[in-house]
């Protein structure tokens, strides 16, 4: 059973959540704005940090001028270290800044090598603020390395998979820059060795279905656009050099710009992102968005090139249905998110004329919910023993396995809904173990070596 502290916090959490949901339902309906909101005033947020704090640097980008849609990029420091073909770590003892490099190597060697899919954890660091072969502009501010960007002419920077992450919050709360989500995404970026793009989708009731789903798909398309713009920018730089034109140092950082003179190329993704190895990870209602985006990616096919969704992770998805499952009956009053409150959240999310517990956004088992399940990407489902939504998530996974999709289920004993992402539970051993379990499975599909069973 969950601890006494978890039970007490659950009572307090449910009281506040129910109060907020009822207030939003009872408040007079306002004319919805397409711009929308992506966070609530009561949400504790983590500031963006361009320095590699705890091995991860972050950047916020507002990617759609017509809505509040934004992303927070989590770039792991391992992206700045070139992969080594050797299996043994090499220690650097000579050269400029050797003391600093030795410190970096020491920190890297503290991490288990199982967390890195592209070489060993302790690889040879680059010289002086990692400036050399990447053409990047790194500075030291307050003792921390601040990563500025990249050179379009650089073609030997390390490419990492990209993971789109969709936060939870029952459609009406949560944000991609909350303290809890920031901590979770940092952890995932490090253990999976990926660039995490946390999506700040529009919240209900200001923006009801399908706004959040459309935002998720829009970010996937934006990722493909970034990859194509980066290639164009690189081609322009190569043509300038190859054509014997006068080459200036400032041309190294020349990007394709929009009509207002701002760079359209996101340098972190252009230098280090590999969209052909894209993973979707959704938490609670974010898992519903991830599953929708995966289905749309399957329908789009090669139209999304070079983006390819190779796997998805559904963490305690926010599924429901009109015919209750066994867990929905037995655990209806479970911890943190009971069934009655979740139905209120669905009423705030779905338009009144479309409200149904068997809506395709709510129930993954309704018929004629395209595309065919056999075309879906490999899907890992994480469920908790004391979560009333558990059985429907397991049933969806079983349907995927029936058509030969790799769709395992990880069920955690004595766990509650959002046990690995809720603020007070993030630092528990169970939450850490969940992140590592996700990393082990995901690396089967993002590793350049094909399979990652050598831990």
UniProtKB/TrEMBL annotation:
<dbReference type="InterPro" id="IPR050466">
    <property type="entry name" value="Carboxylest/Gibb_receptor"/>
</dbReference>
<dbReference type="InterPro" id="IPR013094">
    <property type="entry name" value="AB_hydrolase_3"/>
</dbReference>
<feature type="domain" description="Alpha/beta hydrolase fold-3">
    <location>
        <begin position="163"/>
        <end position="420"/>
    </location>
</feature>
<feature type="region of interest" description="Disordered">
    <location>
        <begin position="82"/>
        <end position="134"/>
    </location>
</feature>
<feature type="compositionally biased region" description="Polar residues">
    <location>
        <begin position="93"/>
        <end position="107"/>
    </location>
</feature>
<dbReference type="GO" id="GO:0016787">
    <property type="term" value="F:hydrolase activity"/>
</dbReference>
<protein>
    <submittedName>
        <fullName>Alpha/beta hydrolase fold</fullName>
    </submittedName>
</protein>
<dbReference type="InterPro" id="IPR029058">
    <property type="entry name" value="AB_hydrolase_fold"/>
</dbReference>
<dbReference type="Pfam" id="PF07859">
    <property type="entry name" value="Abhydrolase_3"/>
</dbReference>
<keyword id="KW-0378">Hydrolase</keyword>
<comment type="similarity">
    <text>Belongs to the 'GDXG' lipolytic enzyme family.</text>
</comment>
<feature type="region of interest" description="Disordered">
    <location>
        <begin position="26"/>
        <end position="52"/>
    </location>
</feature>
